[in-house]
Amino acid sequence: MEKRNMRRKAVNAGVMSEEEAKKLKKRAIWQDAAAVGIAALGIKSAVSEIKEARELRHEMHQWKLEKAERHRRRLERQMRLANGDGVDGTNSYDQLGRRRADNWSSAAPPMASRYDDGPRYIDGNPYAAIPPSSAPPSDRR
To answer: Where is the segment annotated Disordered (predicted)?
Structure first.
C-alpha cells in the first residue's frame, strides 16, 4: 500500500509518468504472485511431510501389533510343546528332533564316523587335508 501511495504521489507531482507507474504496479503484482506461489510450495511440502509422518506412524503401529501377535503365538506354541500337545497328542517336535538343546553344546548328534579313517592327502600337502568321502577321489580338474 505504501508503494502504491508513493507511485500515485509521484505521478501527481509529475516526477513519474503514468506508463512507468503502471509498469511498477505490474512488477509489484508479479512479485506478490511469486511470493504467494513460493509460500504455497512451502505449505504443500509441509503438508506432504505431515502425511508421510502419519503414514510412518501407522506403519509402526501395524508393526507393533504384528509383533505382539507373533509373540502371543510363540508363547502359545511353547505352552503347547511344554504340555506335549502335538497333532496326535504327542510332542511332534520331539519326534522330528527339532528341539532346543538343554546346554550350550551343539544339538546335532556328533558324527564320529566321519573322521574315523583320518585325513586324506590328495596332493601330498598335509595342510590341504579333506575328510574321507564314500566315493573314490576323481582325477578331474
So the answer is: 78-141
Q: Specify the pTM.
A: 0.42
Cell numbers describing residue 141: 580338474
Instruction: Give the three-class secondary structure for 38.
Output: helix
pLDDT per residue as tens digits for the range 70-113: 999 999 999 999 887 655 555 555 555 555 556 665 555 555 55
Question: Are the C-beta atoms of 91 and 81 separated by less than 8 Å?
Answer: yes
Cα torsion 45, 51, 55, 57: sign: positive
Question: Which amino acid does the sequence have at 125?
Answer: N
CA 140: distance to chain centroid? 46
